[in-house]
Amino acid sequence: MKQCVMHLDRAKFKRNSCKVVAIICLAIEDSQILLVRLASKARDAGSRLEGHFGKKSLAFKLFLCRSFLTAKMEEGNDILEHFKKIKTLAEQLDTVGDPVSENDLAVTLLVSISESNGFFITELNSRAYSLSWELITSRLLHEDLKRKE
User: Fold this and answer.
1) Same domain, 115 and 77
2) Calpha distance 87→84 (Å, rounded)
3) Residue 134 and residue 147: Cα distance in Å, rounded?
4) Are residues 49 and 94 part of one domain?
5) Same domain, yes or no: 79 and 34
6) CA-CA 20 to 30 A from 73: which of 21, 25, 33, 60?
């Protein structure tokens, strides 16, 4: 009985894997089909696509690091867009194997905000806050809303 259940589970897994490969093939462009056409399993198709598109080279890591550390919010830009930009760069660094700590994320955000928010850093210095992404983003959003009113 147990053998029969395992066989059914295996068959269901293989069927689902084939469905995933089909979904991947439908989602990619025709020119990319060559990358996955010989894949018999979803994992194999994913590995082939990652091998082709997953840029984990040292040059790409350095590019992401430089982009993250030198990001600047231009005067007048939307602060939420800037938050997304910084967070996306941090997530990309994590994806290529170079995770960003919570403290580094918070410090990079503070360094990257526009000059008109300089008073905010002074305010943080006057209080005994520990730096966190949530604290800084919520305080910056609050200050941005006050300024827009």
Assistant:
1) yes
2) 5
3) 20
4) no
5) no
6) 60
Which residue's structure tokens are 């919570």?
102
Three-state secondary-structure class, residue 3 = helix
Amino acid identity, residue 40? S
Q: Which of 53, 134, 65, 127 is nearest to 94 (CA)?
A: 65
CB distance 109 to 136 below 8 Å: yes
d(CA 25, CA 31): 11
Give yes or no: residues 89 and 143 share one domain. Answer: yes
Angle between helices 102-112 and 79-95 (to 10 degrees): 140
Amino acid at 120: F
Phi, psi dihedral angles at 121 (to 5 degrees): -65, -40
Q: Which residue has the tokens 């918070």?
A: 106
Q: What is the pTM of this model?
A: 0.62
Torsion, Cα 22 23 26 27, to 10 degrees, reads -150
| Interval 3-54: pLDDT, tens | 665 767 788 888 888 888 888 888 888 877 787 877 778 888 888 887 777 6
